[in-house]
Amino acid sequence: MKEVVFVVFLVLLVIVSDAEVTKPNNGNFLRCLHDRTRQENPITEALYTPDNSTFVSTYVSYTKNKRYSNPNDTNLITIIAAKHESHVQATVVCAKSNGVQIRIRSGGHDYEGLSYISSVPFVVLDMHNLRSITIDVSSKKAKVQAGATLGEIYTKIAEASKTLAFAAGVCPTLGAGGHISGGGYGNLIRKYGISVDHVVDAQLVDVNGKILNRASMGEDLFWAIRGGGGASFGVILSWTINLVEVPKTITVFKVNKTLEQGATDVLYKWQLVSSKLPKELFLRAMPQVAKGAKSKGKTIAVNFYAQFLGSSTKLMKIINKNLPELGLKREDCYEMSWLNTTTFWADYPVGTPTSVLLKRPLEPPGAFFKSKSDYVKKPIPKEGMKKIWKTMLKFNNVWMQWNPYGGVMDQIPANATAFPHRKGNLFKIQYFALWIDANATDANLGLMKELYEMAKPYVSSNPREAFLNYRDIDVGSNPSGETNIEEADIYGSKYFLGNWKRLMNIKAKYDPKNFFRYEQSIPPVRAM
Ligand SMILES: Cc1cc2nc3c(=O)[nH]c(=O)nc-3n(C[C@H](O)[C@H](O)[C@H](O)COP(=O)(O)OP(=O)(O)OC[C@H]3O[C@@H](n4cnc5c(N)ncnc54)[C@H](O)[C@@H]3O)c2cc1C
Ligand SMILES: *[C@@H]1O[C@H](CO)[C@@H](O)[C@H](O)[C@H]1NC(C)=O
Ligand SMILES: *[C@@H]1O[C@H](CO)[C@@H](O)[C@H](O)[C@H]1NC(C)=O
Ligand SMILES: *[C@@H]1O[C@H](CO)[C@@H](O)[C@H](O)[C@H]1NC(C)=O
Ligand SMILES: *[C@@H]1O[C@H](CO)[C@@H](O)[C@H](O)[C@H]1NC(C)=O
Ligand SMILES: *[C@@H]1O[C@H](CO)[C@@H](O)[C@H](O)[C@H]1NC(C)=O
Ligand SMILES: *[C@@H]1O[C@H](CO)[C@@H](O)[C@H](O)[C@H]1NC(C)=O
């Protein structure tokens, strides 16, 4: 199959760019916005140009990664922080007709800043004001707007019911717009899959400025925005999601093992069992650089974080049977409500009031970071683990997440949604380096490449799979304003595997002139 695709690409080796290669006309763009929104919902209060005193603070408060958060480094013309759906429609229509590029931002957590930077003149369409959440307990459904954060969604669900939850990520400030359209991975994955597995409807503004829902967009576009990333297809206004059932009491723990305490052996055994445990149990392992007694003051500590949909008594039994090496003690376990587990996973100490889940970013970001991902299909031998530790010890601050698969992920077909990484994975790795000093950027980026190279023999290959939500510009990318199909094939096959061709076809059908484009967007190509 791969060869066939490649031949198609050689023939089509062209650069897709906007058919109307007009120079962006900013004045006309702004006039167009005012004209289209004049009556009931004037757009003025949603518009931030560089003349507005709050332009910079509005820009940086939703830039999570300090590497990309300097507005002086971008070609940003205007921020439209939409307050009404008509503002979104007007932005799309006016940007298209005036040759202006847009970046769509909900929570601003894109690892590579692709929701708020561009090397060609652009506007940010910011969704954070559109954040309503309605819960219907009787049908176990919720409707959430794109700008709602996970912390707000979790809080509203818990206010409505103590036994309903949503399968999504662990960081409370993630935006529903980007997070869910990229897959939405979290600690209910083994029991319930990921966010897109529970999306039953969506509202989207398409390239013509029309608001579509599932019925009017059709099943192929609805399939694509569940895992394909919304930003290649349109602007997500809202999702309708199914809520899932959880017990009133959930058990969590954190247990720490350093290399000196046998971390390598315990983690090796973890690789053999973690994807086969009961699906109510999610046991994440986080190898990280930590202060140690020996080895130049540094060691590797592996933090094991667990969530079990049941009591601590039952959890103790399961762990003692399958992973006694962990040495789990009763006092390591905490029983709590599902909402309280979300603060536990966000690394707040047990007992922290859940109001922290509602905090929105007010400050510019404090840290620089870089992330990468991998999928692992057979256990990494201990020699391989030791090589990885050695490379990690070269960093000041780096951690990995080893996130177990199995459970329902083995049962959901890879083409059920656009998110393809399902059966056959033992676990997914996230690599994450964080630094505070701008001068350390080159060193950290270099070390991340070295670590990724070191892991290569032990992870998926042909292609080396990557997770869209863990955006990594190194897996392939295009310049901001154009889409080279051959380059797109490189990142697209890693992010989307067998779903790649279908995504391109859907793109060709709904956005044939490639208005919704960015550095890792899906090109409009009719591929066989
Ligand atoms: C601290 C942290 C923790 C994380 N934890 C997890 C986790 O547990 N699980 C997980 O799966 N991921 C996790 N991620 C990754 C996260 O899911 C992605 O970065 C996700 O894209 C963030 O969505 P956002 O709306 O906040 O980001 P944004 O930066 O606003 O958007 C990300 C992408 O989605 C597009 N987009 C945003 N809104 C819309 C919209 N309304 N319509 C169309 N396209 C849109 C953007 O253009 C961009 O391409 C984490 C990231 C961070 C920084
Ligand atoms: C930005 O400034 C313009 C011009 O002074 C004003 O009309 C607009 O309301 C300001 N925007 C915001 C969000 O305050
Ligand atoms: C951006 O440029 C302005 C004007 O030169 C300057 O005052 C400001 O400090 C700069 N901002 C950053 C974050 O570098
Ligand atoms: C794990 O152990 C390391 C090394 O002792 C320590 O630095 C780190 O803070 C510990 N982490 C947790 C969550 O206990
Ligand atoms: C949740 O956490 C709050 C704040 O610490 C605490 O008061 C409450 O008892 C906890 N509830 C449950 C069920 O865990
Ligand atoms: C997924 O692939 C299978 C087998 O090729 C096919 O029968 C099924 O219709 C596909 N499902 C979707 C949702 O496209
Ligand atoms: C970073 O480098 C610059 C230029 O070399 C230097 O002036 C500055 O002190 C350095 N900052 C830190 C925190 O080391």
From TrEMBL:
Gene3D superfamilies: 3.30.465.10, 3.40.462.20, Uridine Diphospho-n-acetylenolpyruvylglucosamine Reductase, domain 2. Keywords: Cell wall, Disulfide bond, FAD, Flavoprotein, Glycoprotein, Nucleotide-binding, Oxidoreductase, Secreted, Signal. It comes from the Eukaryota. One of its GO terms (molecular function) is FAD binding. The keyword Flavoprotein applies. Residues 69-246 form the FAD-binding PCMH-type domain. InterPro entries: BBE, FAD-bd_PCMH, FAD-bd_PCMH-like_sf, FAD-bd_PCMH_sub1, FAD-bd_PCMH_sub2, Oxid_FAD_bind_N. PANTHER family: OS08G0158400 PROTEIN. Belongs to the oxygen-dependent FAD-linked oxidoreductase family. This is FAD-binding PCMH-type domain-containing protein. It comes from Eutrema salsugineum.
